[in-house]
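Worked example

This section walks through a single chain of length 94. The input is the sequence exactly as stored; nothing has been trimmed or padded.
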Amino acid sequence: MTIEYEQGPGGQCPVQAEGKINGLPFYFRSRGVSWSLSIAATPDGDPLEDEEVYFHGEIYEGEESGDSRFGAGYANTDECLAFIERAAKLLLGK
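Given that input, the structure is written out below as tokens.
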């Protein structure tokens, strides 16, 4: 699996990342109590606008989850990298 980051993961409330996974554009967002990854179905697709996307989301259970109902918005970079990799493997099976 090849993950190329064009932006992030970075920021707070939300933490966001964009790039390409196996040549497909993706968008990652972590905010509130959850995080999600959307991957476009085609290389020229838009992971936020297209009707057909690969999508995976989970309730945030990371380092900040016990502190606040907004913990996902403060997820650290290493956590987010792991979330993106895990979701990409689930969605693309590679």
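What to look for: The chain is about 15% helix and 40% strand.
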